[in-house]
Amino acid sequence: MSSKVEVAEGRFDSLKWLVVLVLVAVAVAGNHYFSAESLLYRVLALLVLAVVAGFVALQTVKGQKFALLLKDAKSEIRKVVWPTRQELTQTTMIVIVFVLIVALILWGLDSLVSWIVSGFIG
């Protein structure tokens, strides 16, 4: 049942995506064609075309799903417990110390292997 509803809702989706593609192509071609014009006017025209293309894209089934994804992501970000400055500083220092220790260990192993190989090669 839901697939029939989705097919009915998404019936003109390919046409809408074609309109978005044409708008993007017009923006690119227009920017090239009017390259002698002021940058401000070209940027404003590109922004207008981008907003119109985004609006048309949001009218498709995939566009609506993307908008729902963004809405859900925004609500999930609000649930995140961000670390305090002290926790962030301590964690960063722990990572830096650990990286330095591992770097020293790898340097030591590299020097040892290099010394052993140079002993065999002579």
Automatic annotation (TrEMBL):
Gene3D superfamilies for the chain: Preprotein translocase secy subunit
The answer, when asked if Metal-binding is one of the entry's keywords, is: no
Superkingdom field: Bacteria
Swiss-Prot/TrEMBL keywords: Cell membrane, Membrane, Protein transport, Translocation, Transmembrane, Transmembrane helix, Transport
Q: Which Pfam families match?
A: SecE
Q: Does the keyword Lyase apply?
A: no
- List all membrane-crossing ranges: 15-34, 40-61, 88-109
InterPro entries this protein is in? SecE_bac (IPR005807), SecE_sf (IPR038379), Translocase_SecE/Sec61-g (IPR001901)
Where, subcellularly, is it found? Answer: Membrane
According to its UniProt record, which protein family does this protein belong to? Belongs to the SecE/SEC61-gamma family.
Q: What does this chain do?
A: Essential subunit of the Sec protein translocation channel SecYEG. Clamps together the 2 halves of SecY. May contact the channel plug during translocation.
PANTHER family attached here? Answer: PROTEIN TRANSLOCASE SUBUNIT SECE
Which NCBIfam families does the annotation name?
A: PRK05740.2-4 (NF004378), PRK05740.2-5 (NF004379), secE_bact (TIGR00964)
User: Partners and quaternary state?
Assistant: Component of the Sec protein translocase complex. Heterotrimer consisting of SecY, SecE and SecG subunits. The heterotrimers can form oligomers, although 1 heterotrimer is thought to be able to translocate proteins. Interacts with the ribosome. Interacts with SecDF, and other proteins may be involved. Interacts with SecA.
Write the protein's name. Protein translocase subunit SecE
